[in-house]
Amino acid sequence: MGWSKEEVLQIIEHLRSHRGDNATVEVKKAAGGLPKNLPETLCAFANMPEGGTIILGVDEKADFELVGVPNAAEIEAGIVSQARNLVEPAPWVDTETVTIDDKSIVVCSVANVSLMHKPALYKGKAYLRQADGDYVMNDSDLRMLEVAKLGANERTHYDEAPIPGTSVADLDEDLLREFIVNSRKSSRRLARVHDDTELLRLTRIITSDGELTLAGLYALGNYPQGPEPGLQVTAAVRLPRDGSRQRTRNLTHFDGPLPVLLHDAMAWVEQNISTVRVYLDNGHMTDLAELPLNAIREIIANALVHRDLGPNTLGAGKSVQIRLLPDALIITSPGGLQGISIRQLESADITPVAVNPRLYYIARQLRTPEGYPIIEGEGGGIREAIESMDDRNLGKPIFTDNGVHFSVRLLRHGNAAMGLVPARATEPKPVTDANTETDAQLDKYGKNASVVYGVIDQHGSINLNDIADATALSKGQVRYALKALLDNGLVTMVGTQGRRDTVYKVSR
Predict the structure, then answer these.
(1) Which of 7, 25, 74, 484 places its Cα 20 to 30 Å from the Cα of 143?
(2) What is the pLDDT of residue 246?
């Protein structure tokens, strides 16, 4: 393709705001000629689903300053030579020199090798692009490539696989009842099936032998992580490198069925992202999450429902990952995109593609403990996320697919970029007569555990909405604190989760 000066500068500015390379673009200074690790990068981009771009003559360490290359013609020829002679099979590369401020910038577009000829190798090793680096593919990654080569009609529907030693007794009764009722409401044919066991067989919750399918276990099971530990979600705040040994904070592993995973993961995100104050059109101010929660919810729901459930991911214990970085929130799901490209994913007329068709159907019948649908069901979830980020002038979500995992990055731009007043952590209102010793003990359960506990103790019994009002915390923050208090036996729930009349009491 023909690269213009404006296109190159746009990419550089994007990388500068992103503070580094990404999975589809690599910049190198190349002051002394071809970089030593160029063959690894060529090989890695050849194995990416949509290839990648290499830009030479840019100094990443100097805030992506354009420094140029000494001999652009030799650099271009060297790139082509390395691609042809060092990578097998050789990827198609297109090189071009763009002059910007009298500096020669070499741009190289690397096409992906066809799926049937993957993996591309350099010195006998297959490389893959991940974040901003090139990594040797492991055995699990290579097996996933082999599975991807199968035609759609040859692929195994892993979500229908039986789970030995399980039965309907392993399902959550409330979720099971909800699924049966909603299935009959949504289908005239299923409405005529009066036997619950037969309905569960027809919808592939159970097999003809009465064992749970993977989809049934994942969506409706009491504890899906027993038979399949990879059906969990792991979340953590990743700390900047500041000389201390601490790398993460609030590392949490979520378990339970699909609706609970979504609910708990969202509560964790609400607890850990910043709350900012924004001016309304009428001049007043309101508290707002720094990232649109509806966008985050749709992305997490898609990660849970459309993750790969094959033996090379789930069988290897790979789970959905949520990481909160200083500059971004990243949600990663095992397995690459199937049947759709990133370009199609970003288009306005996206057509739903279910990686796990049986699980997708079940999820459409379920709701979170708050009563919200798990998924939108018409392929509009990602479009909703894109539009929500755009409405807040936060930039579009960054989608990355390397064939082994799929990730979505939501950039945290800071208050100046969003036109907000300085951010503040939401400060709970003070609670009188709090037990100081108890507060210190409760700190280990989270930063808001003591104030939530104090309000419950003060009122005797109180519902979730009133706790939020009394503490000035968001409902998500209250739920997160309540979960820790409930799990450790410090608070008792009277009623059913998700109902407005449910109250909480201090355990005596």
Answers:
(1) 25
(2) 73
pLDDT at 72 over 70: yes
Residue 17 DSSP SS3:
helix
Q: Are 470 and 429 in contact (CB under 8 A)?
A: yes
- Radius of gyration, alpha carbons of the chain: 26
Q: How many CB atoms lie within 10 A of CB 348?
A: 7
Instruction: Tell me the pairing of strands 133-136 and 320-324.
Output: unpaired
Task: Count Cβ neighbours within 10 Å for each residue of 30-64 and write b for 16 or more, e otherwise.
Answer: beeebbeebbbbbbbbbbbbbbbbbbbbbbbeeeb
Condensed to tens digits (0 to 9), the pLDDT of residues 123-177 reads: 999 999 876 688 899 888 888 888 777 655 556 789 999 999 999 999 999 999 9
Residue 237 belongs to what H/E stretch?
strand 233-238
Single-letter amino acid code for the residue at 478:
V
What is the structure's pLDDT at 419? 39
Q: Which residues pair with 55 in a beta bridge?
A: 27, 107
Q: What is the spatial distance between Cα 274 and Cα 308, in angstroms, rounded to a whole number?
A: 31
CA 465 → CA 116, 291, 385, 473, distances in Å? Answer: 56, 22, 27, 10
Strands 248-254 and 121-122 come out as unpaired
Element (H, E) at 456: helix 449-459
pLDDT for 50 equals 85
CA distance 234 to 228: 15
22 vs 224, residue with greater confidence: 224
- Looking at the DSSP bridge assignments, the partners of residue 284 are none
Q: Rounded to 5 degrees, what angle do the CA atoms 165, 169, 174 make?
A: 140
Higher pLDDT, 7 or 471: 7
On the question of a cis peptide bond just before residue 119, with omega within 30 degrees of 0, the verdict is yes
293 pLDDT more than 90: yes
Partnered with residue 252 across adjacent β-strands are 235
Domains and CATH numbers, the chain: 5-152 (3.30.950.30), 229-411 (3.30.565.60), 436-506 (1.10.10.10)
DSSP string, 342-364: HHHHHSTTPPP--SSHHHHHHHH
CA 238 – CA 405 distance, rounded (Å): 19
The whole-model pTM stands at 0.71
From 29, 115, 109, select the one nearest 69 (Cα to Cα): 29
Per DSSP (E only), the strands in 358-449 are: 398-401, 405-411
Torsion of CA 359, 364, 370, 371, to 10 degrees: -150
